[in-house]
Amino acid sequence: MDAQELLIWVRGTGLQIAAAVFVLGMSYRMLHLLLIGRKKSLAEARGSEWAGGLRTMWQRNFVLPRLSPRGRFTFVAGYVFHLGFFVTLFFLSQHIALFRAVFGFGWPALPRGAIDISAVLALAAMVALLAHRLVDPVKRLLSDYQDYLTWALSFLPLLTGFMLLREIAFEYVTLLTLHIASVELLLIAAPFTNLAHMFSTFISRWYNGAVMGFKGIQT
Amino acid sequence: MKEHETLEQRLGEQGVSRRAFLKFCAALATMMALPPSSAGAIAAALSQAKRPSVIWLSFQECTGCTESLTRSHSPTLESLIFDMISLDYHHTLQAASGHAAEQARDEAMKAFYGKYLLLVDGSIPLKDGGVYSTIAGRTNLDMLEEAAKGAAAIVAVGSCAAFGGLPNAQPNPTGAVAVSDIVRDKPIVNISGCPPIPSVITGVLAHYLTFGELPALDELGRPKAFYGETIHDRCYRRPFYDQGKFAKTFDDEGARNGWCLYELGCKGPTTHNACATTKWNGGAGFPIEAGHGCIGCSEPKFWDAGSFYTPLSAPAADVAAVAQVSMIAGAGAAVAMGALDRAKKQKLQQSREKLTVADLKGD
Amino acid sequence: MSLQDIHIRVADAHTVGSLDAILNEIASRLHDFVDTGATSLIDLKSLPFSAEEYEGLRATLGRGEVTARLDSIGDSEIYETRFPGVWWVTHYNVEGDIVADLIEIASVPAIVHSQPEDIYVGLARLRQTLTSVRGEPVEP
């Protein structure tokens, strides 16, 4: 199999496999999670679950002042990474062309300069987060192999994408193949790892808030 | 058959001056994509070069490659090179036909055994004993194997001979393969393209004439001098790619401004060829200059790489349909599992024994 | 509808950036020539120029004092640019297509020099001419 055939495979069959695993796994996991449901409360509560849940979903974005220095670093670097990742994923012209091809609609792209900044910020934040995870004794103790695996799976698409736009170290064909393949690995792993938080994070925030806002007896 | 003389003798006979010869060598250096300073070395080598016998076999092909070569726009240069080879068999170009033509091939093969250059255009069908393409009652496979035996080197002209090309595209009804899939014990140079750039064909011939060997090749057997860089690397629209300025349709503002054609499906970034610098039709231009993206015709399997108009960043196959089916399957599985969970819970609830005071007291 | 009715505008040539690159390359080679006397050639056909940039290069280099025309297997146009030591050499075939397009850094382009082989042949021809004029051989 030569470089072209490999590229055709990752753009075709490989992507179909990855999409199938990702969509099937995620839709199963999320729907199953929701279908577990919550027992109907027979007692009347003073607070509202929905108000509490929604409030927490929003307020968890602004916990910075209440955190320890360690927490603050993780929080800030984490936000920089996520924002950089989203801007790069959803506003690079080439990515929008992909969404247009799959979903049938697109949106305006950001200029390349903005994408360069967002990608570099995301990469730098990830490196800083990994370093912190390795250096900080508490975080190191709390980390297991999955944390490192998901770090690598999120880092690789950013790194290969950055290299691809500049043709660093390898040829375009090779870099494009690596970039698409790294995204496919991310998609395949997502439903089975803590990467599933990309869908569940707001559900769990709501749940936390709902529990706190209930203010009553659970029957 | 005339004994093959050296080029210097031939040019001398024609009254060509040394200066004219040096000019010719400068043009050759340009054509072969060698540094212009190598013109002197080319002159020295060509003075001693012998006129080789060339046998050209056309198999499962459209004659586009021969058309490309004979319609080339620098006739003196290419005809000079053609003067330098002895084209002993080419069933489209030769005057002889029928048995006489086949006889010419047999004679050339015998007379120059081990020394002739074999040019092939078109793929070779293998299915059903190779019956899908025959010449004078013989299969292409049979003819190629016979001619390859005595060849000094083989030049696969065009993407069909080099990689299988159009006949090899899915579902490949004739079982078409490339020359290199059949011949494994001879040096093969692949001049891919649909068709290849004419001066690239003559450039490779000139290189063989000048240095008596094939030029340096890449991992797909293509001469590095012409296929060493991608269309994208050498594209005059490249700065627009780097700036993220893309034409979205063939008639929008971006297209009128001459922006990058990536999102209109240009395969320039993954295609190795010399179009962007050598250009076509006597240097008039190349597809991207005409406002159409590169279709990647000099790369293997370019017919099977999805639509010519799908951007490289988009899927080459239908991913949306797969995702829809997966979504339904995932949701179905979740609902089924949810129902199972509920049934289990109910069953447990029913079988639960109530705790009584007696139980707490124990016995 | 005429061609002018189709609104096609070509984006600014300077955005492509090859012109700066080639001018820098020429400057660097000219510097080497001044320092070491090393002549050199740049194959313009191997470089990605937009049509505007190619014209831009012509305009920037301009024309200097010397122009030569070579007439062998087609024309060749050779002229010094307005930067002494920088020559533009264009070889055409008999049909008028460009077969080689070069920038040569030298005091005189190599192709202009008379070639020893041609001089030798020319000398023989000159002697032959003299023989036929005088009717007797000339001592070498």
Question: If you had to describe this structure to a student in words, what would you say it looks like?
Answer:
The complex is a heterotrimer of chains A (219), B (363) and C (140). With 219 residues, chain A is mostly helical. Chain A contains 10 helices and no strands. Chain B has 363 residues and is of the alpha/beta class. Helices cover 43% and strands 10% of the residues of chain B. In chain B, the strands form 3 sheets. In chain B, strands 2-1-3-7-9 form a 5-stranded parallel β-sheet, with helices on both faces. In chain B, strands 4-8 form a two-stranded antiparallel sheet. A two-stranded antiparallel sheet of chain B has the order 5-6. Chain B is elongated, with a radius of gyration of 30 Å. By secondary structure, chain C is α+β, with helices and mostly antiparallel strands. Chain C has 3 helices and 5 strands. In chain C, β3 (75-80) and β4 form a beta hairpin. In chain C, α1 packs parallel to α2. Chains in contact: A-B, B-C. At the A-B interface, α1, α2, α5 and α9 of A face α16 of B.
List keywords for this structure.
heterotrimer; A: 219 residues; B: 363 residues; Cytochrome-c3 Hydrogenase, Chain A, domain 2; 3 domains; five-stranded parallel sheet; 17 helices; 9 strands; 43% helix; 10% strand
Query: How would you spell out the order of helices and strands of chain C?
Result: HEHEEEEH
CATH fold naming of the largest domain in chain C: Ribosomal Protein S8, Chain: A, domain 1
**Head-to-tail CA distance between termini of chain A:** 63 Å
Helix content of chain C: 25-40%
Shape of chain C: extended
Task: Lay out the secondary structure.
The complex is a heterotrimer of chains A (219), B (363) and C (140).
Chain A: H1 3-11, H2 13-36, H3 49-59, H4 69-91, H5 93-103, H6 112-135, H7 137-142, H8 145-166, H9 172-189, H10 197-214
Chain B: H1 7-13, H2 18-31, H3 39-48, E1 53-58, H4 64-70, H5 75-84, E2 86-90, H6 98-111, E3 116-121, E4 124-125, E5 134-135, E6 138-139, H7 140-149, E7 151-157, H8 158-163, H9 165-168, E8 176-177, H10 179-182, E9 188-191, H11 198-211, H12 224-227, H13 238-242, H14 253-256, H15 275-278, H16 319-351, H17 357-361
Parallel strand pairs in B: 1-2, 1-3, 3-7, 7-9
Antiparallel strand pairs in B: 4-8, 5-6
Chain C: H1 18-36, E1 40-43, H2 51-61, E2 67-71, E3 75-80, E4 86-92, E5 98-105, H3 116-134
